[in-house]
């Protein structure tokens, strides 16, 4: 009973007693921890990896693996430092011909890493296979065009001039196989639709594999002159050119009806007297033919909506 009483009295709340106890426990813990770190252990660790290849002429198609997992033996200090990742340089995997390699078997890596691990012994590689996909870099010049400008404009409006794209050509760099699939002309798509006033914006080239394809420059300045259009319906004189000698004149008509649209600003000055519908019979074989006459004399910005067809026999 006296022993229990002595222990109870020692543990009774006393600042001096508790400070001594805490210091003793802390000292014992530190001594045990440092003693344990001086011993050798085997454990599984993840190591950062980097791939050494000619990055000026090759590009990864898929993200390269960032880590590899191995079982290693070393002192507690070294393993502790590695597990925390403090100032740990990546293990380097050299690739002399990166485009020819698709996978690296894990069992071949200890020899590669042997000289790169300080004070650690590799027992075996846990990562079975490292898969890589690297291709040669290629460059290609693409022409830039606007994909059917009218689809982005309000149906009541139209272009009064050709779309202006600056620049109208770009260089694109990326994996060789992917570059080969690109069209010679890249159709630009505008982010807006139903435009009803002049448009001027910078449009970024959006490739499906934008993380792999890099255009220079990547921004295209697009300028569109837009105006409201009005519809005009007219009967236009029909002219047939290159007429064969055996043409049956009795089947001909003198006029054709047509509909076209003009910018509102041209309606006051436009005259339909200069219009004509033309059918060219040059090179046509004998028999009956149905033609859609070509309307000539319209301003360049006019858009023909509909023209009556004409049947010619000869």
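^ structure tokens above, recovered residues below v
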């Amino acid at each position: 009973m006296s022993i229990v009483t002595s222990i109870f009295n020692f543990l009774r709340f006393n600042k001096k007693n508790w400070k001594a106890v805490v210091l003793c426990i802390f000292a014992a813990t530190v001594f045990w921890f440092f003693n344990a770190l001086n011993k050798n252990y085997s454990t599984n660790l993840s190591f950062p990896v980097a791939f050494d290849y000619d990055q000026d002429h090759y590009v990864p198609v898929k993200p390269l693996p960032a880590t590899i997992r191995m079982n290693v033996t070393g002192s507690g200090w070294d393993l502790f430092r590695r597990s925390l990742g403090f100032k740990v340089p990546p293990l380097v995997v050299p690739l002399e011909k990166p485009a020819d390699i698709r996978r690296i078997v894990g069992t071949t890596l200890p020899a590669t890493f042997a000289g790169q691990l300080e004070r650690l012994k590799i027992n075996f590689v846990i990562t079975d296979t490292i898969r890589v996909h690297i291709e040669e870099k290629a460059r290609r010049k693409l022409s830039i065009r606007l994909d059917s400008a009218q689809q982005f404009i309000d149906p009541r409006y139209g272009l009064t001039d050709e779309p202006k794209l600056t620049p109208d050509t770009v260089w694109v760099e990326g994996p060789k196989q992917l570059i080969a699939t690109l069209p010679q002309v890249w159709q630009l798509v505008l982010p807006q639709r139903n435009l009803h006033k002049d448009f001027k914006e910078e449009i970024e080239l959006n490739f499906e594999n934008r993380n792999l394809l890099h255009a220079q420059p990547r921004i295209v300045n697009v300028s569109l002159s837009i105006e409201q259009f009005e519809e005009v319906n007219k009967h236009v004189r029909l002219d047939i050119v290159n007429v064969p000698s055996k043409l049956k004149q009795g089947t001909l008509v003198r006029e054709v009806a047509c509909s076209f649209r003009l910018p509102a600003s041209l309606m006051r000055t436009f005259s339909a007297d200069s219009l004509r519908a033309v059918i060219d019979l040059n090179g046509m074989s004998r028999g009956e033919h149905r033609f859609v006459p070509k309307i000539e004399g319209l301003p360049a910005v006019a858009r023909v909506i509909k023209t009556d067809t004409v049947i010619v026999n000869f």
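The first strand starts at residue 40 and ends at 52.
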